[in-house]
Amino acid sequence: MDYRDIIRKHYKKQAEEYGDTSSATMQDEIVREKEVDAIFKFLHSIPVSSKRIRLLEIGCGNGFLLSCISKEFNDRFELYGIDMTPELIEIAKQSNPDCQFTLGDILKTPYEGGFFDVLISERVIINVLDEEDQVSTYREMARVLRSGALAVLIEGYKSGLYNLNKAREEFLLEPIPEPSVNNWYTEERWELFLKTGFEELPEEKIKDLIPENFLSSHYFMTRFLHDVIRPENSKIRNTEFARFFAEALPPTGDYSPLRIKYLRRT
């Protein structure tokens, strides 16, 4: 079976179960809230333009994030979304009539070259299970972005899961597997992605943004310490315990597979 069929089947089930809610594609409420906050802070940092800024979200799912952006920024952005799951796109169209949604493959989008000013990916390219196709996705992203355009990506990296499972092993907890519908990045693969036409924004440009490891402490507390205390409730995520430490602790270390990256199209 082609991996795209596996991914469509998975997200069709997500559409049926979660509809237009924030839980579609991410059931950890704190992770979703922190992701949206980080993306908002990035978008607020973009200088105001006299014309609407064209923004594309690849793998837009049910349109939840674009709906949040539309409410937060009014008409500042001209919003586009693309996803290959028909059921999610239909939900997005019904929920967000002001956004332009397309059913399509992110490896070969219908947009003109250099059309967009900003691109967002929220846990999307990790669903491209073939490593060469992941590289091709970055090439396609570079194609549709104008020179100097910006991108914010939240994607999964293997090192965070390795470190988390190392901590779990020390307390005799079972390792957390990488999801079957994901192919998380290695550091070497990330360097390949950058060579397709991107560069990471320099430190002085991102010093006031949410740090790359913004979910590390949350994952350590909820996927390690919580499970040490109550291993029988290891599947429970949205607890008061999690919310307290999500507010109390700054991000530390590399214990979350999810990182945020800020890029410029070269």
Topology of helices and strands:
Layout: H1 3-18, H2 29-44, E1 53-58, H3 64-73, E2 77-83, H4 86-95, E3 100-103, E4 116-122, H5 131-144, E5 145-156, H6 158-170, H7 187-194, E6 198-200, H8 203-206, H9 216-229, H10 240-248, E7 258-265
Parallel strand pairs: 1-2, 1-4, 2-3, 4-5
Antiparallel strand pairs: 5-7, 6-7
Helix pairs in contact: 1-4, 5-7, 6-9, 9-10
Walk me through this protein's architecture.
The chain is an alpha/beta fold and 266 residues long. Helix content is 43%, strand content 18%. It is built from 10 helices and 7 strands. It has a 7-stranded mixed beta sheet with strand order 3-2-1-4-5-7-6. Helix 5 runs parallel beside helix 7 (187-194), helix 6 runs parallel beside helix 9 (216-229) and helix 9 (216-229) runs antiparallel to helix 10. The protein is globular. The model has no long low-confidence stretch (mean pLDDT 96).
